[in-house]
Write a structure and sequence with these properties.
This protein is 31% helix and 14% strand. The protein has 211 residues and is an alpha/beta fold. A hairpin with a 6-residue loop joins strand 3 and strand 4.
Amino acid sequence: MFIRNAALAAAAIAAFATLASAQGVYDLSPQQPGRPRTQPNPAAIAAIAGDARLVEPGVLTVATNASTPPLATYATDSATLVGADPDVAQLIADSLGLRLKLIPTPWADWPLGVASRKYDAAISNIGVTEQRKEKFDFSSYRAGLHGFFVKADSKVGKIAEPKDAAGLRIVLGGGTNQERILLEWSKQNVAAGLKPIELITFDDEANRLLA
């Protein structure tokens, strides 16, 4: 998760305790009756009082990718955003005493959108990198772990280091930290006389899974 303002990032921490305690069946209804909510947090509100410049007064505008369930997807009305990321965004807005506005955004578009003040924050499975930290503030609510999955009948047994991926076709999101890592792996393979990795990028999770 990326938050444009350090004070907003701090306000996010309390929201996760509430979210972690919420359990139940995945709800795709637009009403979201079981969505976790919380009360305004005076300390969080005070932390942003003289620092935050919101895109819209009284509103927390959050970009999220709507193609990655259960993190975020559309409800049965094909309009309302639901999932873990919208839940987190709602809790942050609640804690700051703000109304939430969720904006469905292709993953690759969040950096420019936040930098240009189109969004206050982006909550979309964003990995923390040193380069990104030069421009943006991040929450620290979870570890950023990467992995691979293959079809059940795949001959690929494991991918633990660059040579394991040599010559493979790997589908992933464009502009992601995973793409950066695999491009570097591919360079290492070529330098070692191995086949490069063929990367196929899609912005939409459904297309990635179909591929």
